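[Q] Does anyone have a clean structure-token version of this?
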Amino acid sequence: MAEDALAAKIDTLIRLQAHLAIAGLGSQHQKILFLGRVGLSTAEIADILGTTVNTVSVALSNARKDGALRRSAAKANRGTGEKNGQE
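[A] Here you go.
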């Protein structure tokens, strides 16, 4: 039981952090790309944004096709000193 309570608290904290992280992003598309980049599942992203898994899947698929995920990753890595996903 204690493990379930801890897991629920961690889930709540992750969701709060996700909402704070995307608060400054303009479009839902940008929010989907960001949350996908940080490793959330399509179901988690859909739940956080209040949309469907299909909407998230299509946005991520289109971003992969046109290279937007690589560009967003490069922008995110500029301030961290990472290159090509490596620390």
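[Q] Thanks! Anything notable?
[A] Residues 35 and 41 are 8 Å apart (CA to CA).
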